[in-house]
Amino acid sequence: MKRRIDRRHADDDRAKRHESENVFDHASVSLREACEGDRNRRLPSFLPSPESCIFAGLNVETHELAGHRKRRAASKSSMTAHNVPAMETPAAYCEAGLQHLRAGRHLDARACCEQALTIDAEHTDAQHLMGLLFLHDKHYNDALEWIVRAIRRAPKPEYLASFGTALQQHGRFEEALNVLDKAIQLRPDDAGLWRQRGDILSQLSRLDQALASFEHALKLDPQHHDTLRKSGILLHNLGRNEEAIAHLDLSDRLFPNHAPTVHARAWILYSLKRFEESATEGKRAHQLAPDKADTCNNLGLSLRRLGRDEEALAWFEKAIAIEPRLLAAFNNKLTTLFQLHRFDEVFALTDHMKALGLNDTVTDWNVALAHLLTGDFEAGWRGHQTRLKLPSAKYARFVQPMWLGGEDIEGKTILVAADEGLGDTIHFVRYVPMLAARGARVILAVQDPLRRLMSGLSGVSHHVPMSAAGALPHFDLHCPISSLPLAFGTRLDTIPADMPYLASPPDDRIQAWDNRLGPRTRLRVGLAWSGDPTHVNDHARSIPLRTLSRILDVDATFVSLQKGPRPSDAAVLRERNDIVDLTAELTDFTETAALMSCLDLVITVDTSIAHLAGALGRPTWLLLPWTPDYRWLLDRTDSPWYPSMRLFRQTETREYESVLDRIRDELRTRASSFEPSPH
User: What is the spatial distance between Cα 507 and Cα 571, in angstroms, rounded to a whole number?
Assistant: First the structure.
């Protein structure tokens, strides 16, 4: 019996879907019939080619009432569905019905509409109003029937706009767009129609075209706050955040304390790295709409970037309380616990998320990093493979099997290819000779700037730059270079740390750089203070040159190793005469390695320079944030990966000034004992 009932329901559902499709198809035909007669009107030429772009979060604003609002005065009468005063014309009933609809009195509006239709069953405004009432109640088939009846008799722009709205609600956006183009043909100066067109193009992910429609609407109605808001969101999604915030600022001034506008402002300020302002706006958005989990989540992100992790944690928890399955808030809470070094809670939260079915690749990746940072390499390297599933993963797909240590490779050809950053490649290339020792023929594919540096690495049969990775020689197996620690079952006590594992640069290049630096009368110290600005943790790893300059009063020769300094740092570098800057001549990592070989010490933040110095066995002092990259572990001043390296860590204060003060004191001691080389 149960099966029969289920089948009957399924048949009913299919019938309803079929009926819905038939109604919409019939409506489209009716629209063509209604508009076909007017041959003198042309469709607008504004139809840019479609763009493929990800769109997030614009609310659709329907147009049906907007056209009426401009043309009809507000009704001051008050009535109920049970006491509708007698009127002489259907138009009067329609006018009253529209006022009730705008005020949310839908029963009263329906009563007026029915009275109008009783007087004149073919009154188009009354038919349209009935369609609007059904549309509001989400009875789309009935809505379309009434709206199409009105369009057949009088294809007015407002009727077409309502028809477009119904198509939008049914997910038939291309057809809705065609309908709006016909409406705009009839009334090209109607800002509301252009707004609705922008909404439809947004739903079609044609962001450039949607923005053009909204901007045209703003030319017609420059003070429309919601058009400004939507334009701002589109500009943000197109990466034009300065323009976006200008639009939202004006929207906020025109219509203060509109929660969606304030929410959008907070997020775009975050994208502009104006975190204090973002947090302030986030709190205002929460006051206006305290039930919005996304607002709480975004506020937590701003506070976390301000280093206020405990406050951020409370907001992520508030977001979860509002929306108990909001994965982003769970992941952000997990990351914040990670930053607070509350690792037992990280692992407990992960278990809870898995029990809820909420974990994803981001969750698994963060947990893997927590295992590695705390020294649990067995679980950590396993989870480290999750990186290959992240949206940011760059590793190519090969038909050959991936080797992760489980089979004999003697006599096999294995491709080892870079899959993360430059520093990761330098860090893990130490494993390549171990592959050759197992009898494998190794093809090594690395980033182009590293190719010459790696050309002298032992155990490599064939070197390939990543730019030529499309023309690889034959190989039997492949392994991402960052998977080699997993393949070799690396533990803390089995880290391969024979130094140096990179070949020394050519003698003539070292001599050339030594000559450029001049007589060795003082301690030579190389400096690197920033890494990749797009790195997710760049704000914690990199430091401004002006901050680093507190160590420059030590009696030493400071040499820049910083390629491509940021504009603010470049300005400081130009101001100073106590840093030798020859970086324009550092054409690749071999040249940088040759220059490093002329130095007595390298002081650097966590970037590829640190890995290069460590791999060459050069004395290196590394500045680390409170929560460092996993490979530096916790609570130690040495590195099992690089014996020549010392680690200078932030404390819980999370500032570099005190770290640099410690470095300056030790550097001063080292400089005072330096003995110049004889001429």
Answer: 34
pLDDT tens by residue, 504-518: 999 999 999 999 999
Which of 468-475's residues contact partners 24+ apart within 8 Å by CB, and which partners? 469/396, 469/417, 469/445, 472/415, 472/443, 472/445, 473/413, 473/443, 474/413, 475/400, 475/413, 475/414, 475/415, 475/443
CA distances from 667 to 471, 558, 597, 674 (A): 49, 12, 19, 11
List the structure tokens of 646. Answer: 């010392």
pLDDT in tens, 629-656: 999 999 999 999 999 999 999 999 999 9
Q: What percent of the chain has pLDDT over 70?
A: 87
Long-range contacts of 569-575 (CB under 8 A, 24+ apart): 569/529, 569/530, 569/544, 569/545, 572/544, 572/545, 572/546, 573/545
Across-strand partners of 559?
526, 580
As a whole number of angstroms, the distance between CA 427 and CA 541 comes to 18
DSSP per-residue letters across 293-355: HHHHHHHHHHHHHTT-HHHHHHHHHHHHHHSTT-HHHHHHHHHHHHHTT-HHHHHHHHHHHHH
Q: Alpha-carbon distance 446 to 434, whole Å?
A: 17
Q: What is the pLDDT of residues 394-427, one digit of tens each?
A: 899 999 999 999 999 999 999 999 999 999 999 9
User: 3-state SS of 141-158?
Assistant: HHHHHHHHHHHHHCCCHH
Backbone dihedral region for residue 408 (phi beyond 0: left; psi -120 to 50: alpha; all else: beta): beta
Q: Provide the 10 A C-beta neighbour count for residue 653.
A: 11
pLDDT at 578 exceeding the cut of 50: yes
Confidence at residue 170, expressed as pLDDT on a 0 to 100 scale: 85
pLDDT mean across residues, the chain: 88
Residues 14-40 have a mean pLDDT of: 38
The closest of 291, 295, 255 to 278, measured between CA atoms, is: 295
Q: Give the Cα separation of 487 and 631 in Å (integer).
A: 17
Report yes or no: 90 and 123 within 8 Å, Cβ to Cβ: yes
Mean pLDDT of 34-63: 30
Residues 6+ apart with CB under 8 A from 239: none
Structure tokens at 562: 């910083």
Query: Residue 422 in contact with residue 447, Cβ under 8 Å?
Result: yes
Closest CA to 100 of 77, 122, 82: 77
C-beta separation of 595 from 561 below 8 A = yes
Q: Report the percent of the chain where pLDDT is more than 90.
A: 82
| Global pTM value | 0.81
**For residues 495-515, b (16+ Cβ closer than 10 Å) or e, as one string?**
bbeebebbeebeeebbeebbe
Question: How long a stretch of residues is the chain?
Answer: 679
Does position 28 have pLDDT exceeding 60, yes or no? no
- 2 Cβ contact list (under 8 Å, min separation 6): none
Rounded Cα distance between 269 and 276, Å, is: 9
Cβ atoms 589, 452 nearer than 8 A: yes
- β partners of residue 441: 413
Residue 199's contacts (CB-CB under 8 Å, 6 or more residues apart) are 58, 60, 61, 168, 210, 230
Confidence check: pLDDT of 116 > 70: yes
**Residue 658 pLDDT > 60:** yes
